[in-house]
Design goal:
The protein is an all-alpha fold. It is built from three helices and no strands. Helices cover 41% and strands 0% of the residues. The termini are far apart.
Amino acid sequence: MSFHPQMAYDATFHKSTRVLADAGPAFEFTAENRARLDEILTRYPADRSRSAVLPALYLVQYQQGYITGNAMRAVAEACRARGGRVI
């Protein structure tokens, strides 16, 4: 006796349902927020700049109210420019 429902193990069962974030409008930090981001990035060694991703995304949310795909790309580029690797 089994309490587990029978599941169909076909090709559709293992497909990812992940949806990429909406690209949204082009994003650029304001001069003030870019200075804040630069200060945040100095808190971490250059090879660990990806540790600044969450504080940088909070800064994006503070500036624009929400996070878009283009904003995530801008944060990744800022971290990469400092010499780090962003996954």
